[in-house]
């Protein structure tokens, strides 16, 4: 009988410890209450406090990104692109049109606020891009002609 009691105690206390009774608020409830408190604080914060809070959040993000490896960066960007694709795949035609209108308005506002120097820089970049695109088309056509030539020569031989 003593052996049996010892075995019972061994199993109960060593292999399967009984969890202690939790006092106060458990993790889920505590985090929920903390989120509610944060939301309530945000409702009454001034514009200056809000600006300071958002600036701090942005700074933390920049610090985190500055320390990440190239692999982590690529993974983060890939995840962002995936989420964007999923979001766009689920949007309705109306939502898509609304998003495109907003993007166009922002572009117009940005261009309207820009200086002549910024405008010239933007136009110069557009011209350079067009030149590169034309060169790529010409190179592609040349590549196609060369491939066709070698294919024809191989067939003739």
Automatic annotation (TrEMBL):
<dbReference type="InterPro" id="IPR048998">
    <property type="entry name" value="STPR"/>
</dbReference>
<feature type="compositionally biased region" description="Basic and acidic residues">
    <location>
        <begin position="107"/>
        <end position="120"/>
    </location>
</feature>
<feature type="compositionally biased region" description="Basic and acidic residues">
    <location>
        <begin position="42"/>
        <end position="52"/>
    </location>
</feature>
<feature type="compositionally biased region" description="Basic and acidic residues">
    <location>
        <begin position="61"/>
        <end position="76"/>
    </location>
</feature>
<feature type="region of interest" description="Disordered">
    <location>
        <begin position="22"/>
        <end position="122"/>
    </location>
</feature>
<dbReference type="Pfam" id="PF21107">
    <property type="entry name" value="STPRs"/>
</dbReference>
<feature type="domain" description="STPR">
    <location>
        <begin position="73"/>
        <end position="136"/>
    </location>
</feature>
<feature type="compositionally biased region" description="Basic and acidic residues">
    <location>
        <begin position="84"/>
        <end position="97"/>
    </location>
</feature>
<protein>
    <recommendedName>
        <fullName>STPR domain-containing protein</fullName>
    </recommendedName>
</protein>
């Amino acid at each position: 009988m003593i052996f049996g009691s010892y075995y019972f105690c061994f199993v109960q206390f060593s292999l399967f410890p009984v969890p202690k009774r939790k006092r106060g608020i458990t993790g889920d409830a505590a985090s929920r209450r903390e989120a509610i408190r944060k939301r309530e604080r945000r409702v009454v914060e001034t514009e200056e406090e809000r600006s300071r809070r958002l600036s701090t959040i942005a700074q933390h993000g920049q610090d985190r990104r500055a320390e990440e490896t190239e692999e982590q960066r690529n993974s983060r960007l890939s995840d962002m692109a995936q989420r964007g694709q999923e979001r766009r795949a689920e949007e309705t035609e109306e939502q898509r049109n609304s998003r495109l209108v907003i993007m166009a308005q922002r572009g117009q506002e940005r261009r309207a606020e820009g200086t002549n120097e910024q405008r010239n820089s933007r136009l110069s970049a557009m011209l350079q891009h067009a030149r590169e695109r034309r060169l790529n088309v010409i190179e592609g056509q040349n590549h196609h002609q060369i491939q066709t030539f070698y294919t024809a020569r191989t067939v003739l031989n």
